[in-house]
TrEMBL record:
The keyword Cell cycle does not apply. Residues 344-578 form the ABC transporter domain. Pfam families: ABC_membrane (PF00664), ABC_tran (PF00005). This is Xenobiotic-transporting ATPase. It comes from Candidatus Magasanikbacteria bacterium GW2011_GWC2_41_17. GO terms for cellular component: plasma membrane. GO terms for molecular function: ABC-type oligopeptide transporter activity; ATP binding; ATP hydrolysis activity.
Amino acid sequence: MKQRTKQTLRLYWSQIRNYKFLLFFMLLALGIATVLEIIIPIYYKQFFDILTSARPSSTIATALMDTLFMILAINAISWIIYRFTTFTSDYFQPHVSADLLQYAYKYLQRHSYNFFTNRFVGSLVRKVTKLSRAFQTFADRAYWHLFTLGIRVIGATIVLYIFNHTVAYILFVWTIIFITINYFFSVWKLKYDTARSAKDTETVAVLADAVTNQVNIQLFNGFSFEFGRFKKVTDELQKLQTLTWNLGSVIEGIQAALFIAVEFLLMYFAIKFWQQGTLTVGDFVLIQSYLLGLINRLWDVGRHIRDIYESFADAEEITEILNTPHEITDAPNAKTLTVKKGEIEFKKVNFSFHQTRRVLEDINLVIKSGEKIALIGPSGAGKTMLMKALFRFHDIDSGDILIDGQSIKKISQESLHDNLSLVPQDPILFHRSLIENIRYGQRKATDKEVLKAAKLAHCDDFIINLPQKYETFVGERGIKLSGGERQRVAIARAILKNSPILILDEATSSLDSHSEALIQDALAKLMKQKTVIVIAHRLSTIRQMDRVIVIKNGQIFEQGTHDELLAKDSLYKHLWQIQAGGFLQEEER
């Protein structure tokens, strides 16, 4: 068994064990019902032995009726037990499936920012949704089919052994051979099922990427190019599907040949024993009942085994991720961050991507309580990375980052994020109502508090003109709103959160003068009595800052007030002089 398959089974058991007593009683009931089904052919044997052993009479008729009523009673009891098992399964499977999805969701969300930037969103979603379906397939095939089949094979062999050793040996040995062939064939086929499952996920990812970038495809006439990419992966998926289906057809052909062989063997020896007088008509009925019952179920056993291994192939994609350690974790006994002042210190901070490309180098910076600083510099200088390090989206290589003297490595990530607010350059909203998006800043906020924050951020100005007002859905990623409207929603969210430390990544795109004025007014309200770090582009914003930090090549190149830096031949002065339209140009001299 492959390591990933073992990991998948361990993952299933981690959730199944919460219902182990329910599973035990369900399997016990299913086992009893199956044993009762095995007993029924014995009464059919008795029925036909009575029928063929004497002339018709009232005594014989009574014996036959008694046998029929016994068969009816056993069937009724078996039916009741099966219904109990069905209802139990209908509770068990959905609950375990939901628990698996919730576990996968929680584990996935705890992965780092870097983890998500290196993977297709559509691919991750597909892998998670496959997990639930994969478990249901596994559970259904495991206990409804393979578990009951095992009981039927053992039970039928024992009963036949009592009446005829040779017939029992033939049936048992043939069954073992049949199941072994199916098992090893399914294990061999698993590598193709895994490849097919991976290609299926890739196809969904390519499709999701194209749908997400539909506007870009139109703007750059990329339809033919993108269709070519999609056609390539779907053609590869088609080839793998055809291969796996053809392999399934091959094993079904082998199964049919094995069924013909066992039918001939059993009937041949049955006739021989009948000639010798050691086998009755009732024995024929018993053998044929077991044989037909097993054939009906064994015909599908190969498919059930293949279904289980295909479900493993589907589940193993997300199992791999769920067994990938989190890059960024809380320290043992991590403390809760307590912010009284809001002072931030970057102490000899160094960071490289994959230990190759240096992004931050020996950053030493103290931001005092209530101080407002602007980070500026050429594109790729390390401004955004500095903010990601503060949020602990990445762990730095060396040095430390302190908030009120507390190292962010020693505090919980949850408490860290509780005390930081971010207004990003291009806010992404949930495909939910406006009021839900704003309330996300403080999910326990009342409607009154949400409306107050919206008005302070000038969201109310455009929301009241929408048909459904605050209940308007904003579309995926907030696409139904303009850039300025999304930014105001993000500001309202930050106002509602009211964290002591604010980080603002200003949008570089130009807004109309009215939107610019509204956003500047909203930001002024938001920044009151807070420690503020702004990745600044607008001159109007920079002028409001207490200090300007110029970053170049991952280092603090220069710092000072706006006037101090303009008074000398500085990189800041150069950027200022070549500014246009109220924005600093991100150029290197």
